[in-house]
Design goal:
Elements lengths: L30 E9 L14 H7 L2 E10 L3 E2 L18 E2 L8 E2 L5 E2 L7 E2 L2 E2 L2 E2 L12 E2 L4 E14 L2 E10 L34 E9 L1
Length: 219
C-alpha cells in the first residue's frame, strides 16, 4: 500500500484535527543541489595546448563538461493501523509508536527490499514498536523516515567552429551516472496487519542510468 493508503493528511477525528499534526508527506529535512558548466582547459587560448591549431585544435579544443547533482534526506511515511476502526468507521488511522523505530532499507534473503532490516515480532497489541489504536485515538502520522533521493546527471560536449556564424555541436549526456538506486518509501506495504509483506518496497525514486547522444549543426 502507498502513502495515500496510509491516510496521509486525512482527518481521522474531525473533533480534533490537530491530533495528526506532523511534518508534511513531502518533507525533506536536508536537501543539497548543485549544477555546473566547466570549459575544459585544452586548446587555443587555454592553459593546455594554447597554441593548438588545425587538426590538433579540432581534436582537443572546444570541450565542455556540465553536471547536475541532487541529494535529500529521507522522506516520511505513516504506518497504518490495519483493518481496524477504533475511531472512524471509514478510516483506520495510523499506529502509535511504543519504542525506538529502527528503519534501514535492507535486501532480504528472498530478494525483496524492505524498510526494516528484519521481520518485526508480533506483540499482544501490534507489531514490533507499533501498537494498534485504542478507541478514540487517531495515531501518529509520518513517524518513520525512508531513504531520500540521490542523483547525478552529467554532459560532455564538443564544439567545432566552422565559420563565424556556423558550427557543429556534439553532446553526450548521461542521466544517473553512478546508476544509484533509491527506493520510494511511499510504495511500501505499510499496514501492520500485512504479515511478512509489511515494509516491502514496490517502487523506486530513481530511474536506471540512461545515455543519449546529439549532433547539431548551428547556423
Amino acid at each position: 500500500m502507498t502513502r495515500t493508503a496510509a491516510l496521509g493528511g486525512q482527518i481521522i477525528n474531525s473533533w480534533d484535527p490537530n491530533a495528526l499534526r506532523a511534518v508534511s508527506d513531502f518533507d525533506t529535512t536536508h536537501q543539497f543541489n548543485a549544477n555546473w558548466v566547466v570549459e575544459l582547459p585544452f586548446g587555443r587560448g587555454k592553459p593546455l595546448a594554447s597554441g593548438a591549431h588545425g587538426i590538433v585544435q579540432a581534436i582537443v579544443g572546444g570541450w565542455q563538461l556540465s553536471g547536475l547533482a541532487r541529494w535529500t534526506s529521507g522522506f516520511p511515511i505513516s504506518i497504518g493501523n490495519g483493518a481496524t476502526w477504533p475511531t472512524n468507521w471509514q478510516l483506520g488511522g495510523a499506529v502509535v509508536a511504543t519504542g525506538p523505530i529502527h528503519a534501514k532499507t535492507t535486501i532480504r534473503p528472498d530478494g525483496s527490499v524492505n524498510l526494516f532490516p528484519a521481520d518485526l515480532p508480533e506483540t499482544s497489541d501490534g507489531l514490533g514498536p507499533f501498537r494498534h489504536l485504542f478507541p478514540g485515538e487517531s495515531g501518529q502520522r509520518n513517524i518513520v523516515r525512508g531513504p531520500g533521493y540521490a542523483g547525478l546527471d552529467m554532459g560532455l560536449s564538443k564544439r567545432w567552429q566552422i565559420h563565424e556564424a556556423t558550427g557543429v555541436l556534439f553532446r553526450w549526456e548521461v542521466f544517473n551516472v553512478p546508476n544509484l538506486k533509491r527506493f520510494d518509501v511511499a510504495t511500501i506495504t505499510n499496514q501492520i496487519d500485512q504479515g511478512p509483506a509489511f515494509g516491502t518496497y514496490s517502487g523506486l525514486l530513481t530511474n536506471p542510468r540512461v545515455m543519449q547522444f546529439a549532433l547539431r549543426f548551428e547556423f
